[in-house]
Amino acid sequence: MAYKDLREFISDLESHGMLKRITQEVDAHLEITEITDRVSKMKGAGNVALLFENVKGYDMPVLMNAYGSDERMAMALGVEKLDDIADEIREILKLPYISLQNKMNLVSLIPMAKRAINFPKYVKSAPCQEVVEEHPSLDKIPILTCWPKDGGPFVTLPLVFTKNPKTGKRNVGMYRLQKYDAQTTGMHWHIHKNGA
């Protein structure tokens, strides 16, 4: 993992001149996405990540366009260029069959094999637990309405955690969530997706 948390990534973006802080009040209804749309279409140094620090009616900022260039995406993934990931996957796919008689080969391949397998790390405390809401409400989160004819505000890049009730297998996926009210969202799942 390239960064300990999002705060560290934001700090690195800013130190490299790839982040613009917007202190002027902006609206989560259409305005933030319009500004972001214009910035994301700029060529070169104008296409930066945006941190909207003063969102009308909310106490929390909104980060946009953080992964909106190959360079920022590579930074987030901890590589020099995005092709490095493809090269690493190609190397992992070349892992030879390991027989019990060839244990020495296995030891030398452990570092590469570790990168190939997703090892979730369970912890008892994490930065996401710094604020615990007794009565959570979606109304406290600046969820954006992106387009004039959208059905309402949408969480566009959420991490949705699910657990199979029969097997206990866990999954995390990104499924666009439409906010219906302070307690309810709608989610579009395909039957072939792991979350379904």
Rg of Cα set = 21 Å
Count of β-strands = 8
Strand order of the largest sheet: 1-2-3
N to C succession of SSEs: HEHEEHHHEEEEE
Q: Overall mean pLDDT score?
A: 86
Largest sheet data: 3 strands, mixed
Structural shape: globular
List low-pLDDT spans: none
Structural class: alpha+beta
What is the first-to-last residue Cα distance?
28 Å
Helix content: 25-40%
Count of helix runs:
5
| Strand-residue proportion | 5-15%
Keywords:
196 residues, alpha+beta, three-stranded antiparallel sheet
Give structural notes:
This protein has helices at residues 6-15, 31-40, 70-77, 83-93, 103-116, and strands at residues 19-22, 49-52, 62-64, 154-155, 160-163, 170-173, 177-179, 185-187. The protein is α+β, with helices and mostly antiparallel strands. The strands form 3 sheets. The protein has a 3-stranded mixed sheet with strand order 1-2-3. A 3-stranded antiparallel sheet has the order 4-7-8, with no helix packed on it. A two-stranded antiparallel ribbon has the order 5-6. It is globular. The relative contact order is 0.11.
Topology readout:
Blueprint: H1 6-15, E1 19-22, H2 31-40, E2 49-52, E3 62-64, H3 70-77, H4 83-93, H5 103-116, E4 154-155, E5 160-163, E6 170-173, E7 177-179, E8 185-187
Parallel strand pairs: 1-2
Antiparallel strand pairs: 2-3, 4-7, 5-6, 7-8
Overview in brief:
The chain has 196 residues and is α+β, with helices and mostly antiparallel strands.
